Amino acid sequence: MPVEVLTDRDALLMVRLQAGDESALGAVYDQHAGLVYGLARRVTRDEQLASDITQEVFTYLWETPDRVDLSRGSLRTYLAVLAHRRAVDEVRRYERRSRAETASAVPEAEADDGPETSVVAAAAQNWRTQRLSALLDRLSAEQRTAVRLAYYEGLTYVQVADALGIPEGTAKSRLRSALARLRALLGDEAREAIT
């Protein structure tokens, strides 16, 4: 019974939003802003960015209320999915910017230090790539696949789970286990190098 009441309330709020009722937006905001902000904050780990995402989510809802399909889930679920997607997009955008800045900074440093530096940098990068590949090969096939999907292809836990046809919790568990194993392997190598 409470689910039906919630759905009816969501439906009423959506009708009001589609009619341009600003007080309906205020009611939706009051009910769900904490959830939206919390999700965005957890994903981005940045309070200002989470605030911006929260504003974007509710602006999007206001501008496109017809996009909400209550037959597929509650308004709360819709807003949570939207917040999560926006937050993940922001994190990916930030990572792309960082990689681009790093890539553009490397040629300048190489140009200043001469051709020997670029050879040394390329050799160091090649060694790191080979070392990481060797460490990944020591993981189980399931862990290795999950790591490659998440860290090389940039998929979220949910997307990794979908790609592998496994539950989300299993995907998280595989990734956590893989990272723990990699930390242990790196620790073993460091200890061997010291002795």
Q: Kindly identify the CATH topology of the largest domain.
A: Rna Polymerase Sigma Factor, Chain: A
Largest sheet entry: none
Structural class: mainly alpha
Q: CATH class of the largest domain, anyone? A: Mainly Alpha
| Series of secondary-structure elements, N-terminal to C-terminal | HHHHHHHH
Walk me through the structure.
This protein has 195 residues and is mainly α. It has two domains: 2-91, RNA polymerase sigma factor, region 2, helix turn helix motif (Rna Polymerase Sigma Factor, Chain: A); 114-194, Winged helix-like DNA-binding domain superfamily/Winged helix DNA-binding domain (Arc Repressor Mutant, subunit A), CATH 1.10.10. 85% of the residues lie in helices and 0% in strands. Helix 6 crosses helix 8. The N and C termini lie far apart (67 Å). Mean pLDDT is 81; it is low at 1-6.
SSE order and pairing:
Layout: H1 2-18, H2 22-44, H3 47-63, H4 75-113, H5 115-137, H6 141-152, H7 157-164, H8 168-194
Fill in the keyword field for this structure.
mainly alpha; disordered N terminus; Rna Polymerase Sigma Factor, Chain: A; Arc Repressor Mutant, subunit A
